[in-house]
From TrEMBL:
Function recorded in the entry: Catalyzes the reversible reaction in which hydroxymethyl group from 5,10-methylenetetrahydrofolate is transferred onto alpha-ketoisovalerate to form ketopantoate.
Pathway: Cofactor biosynthesis; (R)-pantothenate biosynthesis; (R)-pantoate from 3-methyl-2-oxobutanoate: step 1/2
EC identifiers of the protein: 2.1.2.11
Record keywords: Cytoplasm, Magnesium, Metal-binding, Methyltransferase, Pantothenate biosynthesis, Transferase
Protein name listed in UniProt: 3-methyl-2-oxobutanoate hydroxymethyltransferase
Cofactor stoichiometry and binding remark: Binds 1 Mg(2+) ion per subunit.
Reactions the enzyme catalyzes: (6R)-5,10-methylene-5,6,7,8-tetrahydrofolate + 3-methyl-2-oxobutanoate + H2O = 2-dehydropantoate + (6S)-5,6,7,8-tetrahydrofolate
Active-site residues from the entry: 189
Native source organism of the sequence: Chryseobacterium defluvii
GO molecular function, one term: methyltransferase activity
Classification lineage: Bacteria, Pseudomonadati, Bacteroidota, Flavobacteriia, Flavobacteriales
Length: 271
């Protein structure tokens, strides 16, 4: 029997056990109660309340504008809809990079007010003091290496990261450091599959890949991308399981037609 089917409530320890047992970990984003309820009912192991809410929920070009208060609101909404999954919430840009004290304050707010089970932050050695401060306070931390969207203006592109030897070596070093600091998992975003395999085999904590190939210990996608609500976003790593954009716009068009023609509401739909 798999760890997935045995567990009634997923914890950070569950994810460690899944890696040990070589059972893949599943992760999707959610930003609201209704979506979280459906994703959780579908059997997902981990839900990420991602700062990608800035893109898919608010329409911003990057993840940078979203605030801690807004992320806490999204986390609250998601937690109310979840019975089983582990809920991890992103700390947004500017809430942990400047100093460890601010990082801890942000993480505490996300746990106390947002109700999250863990936080995720981007970066390696550069933010090690903030990670250590948060973990020492008893708050679980998921790391994030590779393409880190909060640093997009530093990178200047969303292309694959760590293709060059120097950056690849730093990524491996950072992954080992995150493990040493006590992170329970690390997201690897948009890096070569062979490098992701090397990292996954070099550390004992689970790796969760997005655009990082099949060798990570788990996979994560943005829910809105996976179900086809975003029609224009078509990266190589994305597999669409539905085409909700077409389904929803079609349903709306039919509703408009039915109301205009006085077909809706009919006698059965009236009191």
């Amino acid at each position: 029997m798999s760890v997935h089917s045995e567990i009634k409530k997923v914890t950070t320890e569950t994810l460690r056990k899944m890696k040990f047992d070589k059972e893949k970990i599943t992760m999707l984003t959610a930003y609201d109660f209704t979506t979280a309820k459906m994703v959780d009912a579908g059997g997902i192991d981990t839900i990420l309340v991602g700062d990608s809410a800035a893109n898919v929920m608010a329409g911003f070009e990057t993840t940078l504008p979203i605030t801690l208060d807004q992320m806490i609101y999204h986390a609250q909404s998601v937690v109310r809809g979840v019975d089983r999954a582990l809920v991890v919430a992103d700390l947004p840009f500017g809430t942990y990079q400047s100093n460890p004290e601010k990082a801890l304050e942000s993480a505490v707010r996300m746990m106390k007010e947002g109700g999250a089970h863990a936080v995720k932050i981007e970066g390696g050695k550069e933010i090690s003091k903030s990670i250590k401060k948060i973990i020492n306070a008893g708050i679980p931390v998921m790391g994030h290496l590779g393409l880190t969207p909060q640093s997009i203006y530093k990178f200047g592109t969303y292309k694959v990261r760590a293709k060059e030897e120097a950056e690849a070596e730093k990524l491996i070093s950072d992954a080992k450091l995150l493990e040493e600091l006590g992170c329970f998992s690390v997201v690897l975003e948009k890096i070569p599959a062979d490098l992701a395999k090397t990292v996954s085999e070099s550390i004992t904590i689970p790796t969760i890949g997005i655009g990082a190939g099949p060798h990570c210990d788990g996979q994560v996608l943005v829910y809105h991308d996976m179900v086809g609500m975003n029609k224009d976003f078509t990266p190589k790593f994305l597999r669409r399981y539905l085409d909700l954009y077409t389904e929803i716009t079609g349903a709306v068009a039919q509703y408009v037609k039915d109301v205009k023609s006085v077909d809706f509401p009919n006698e059965k739909e009236s009191y």
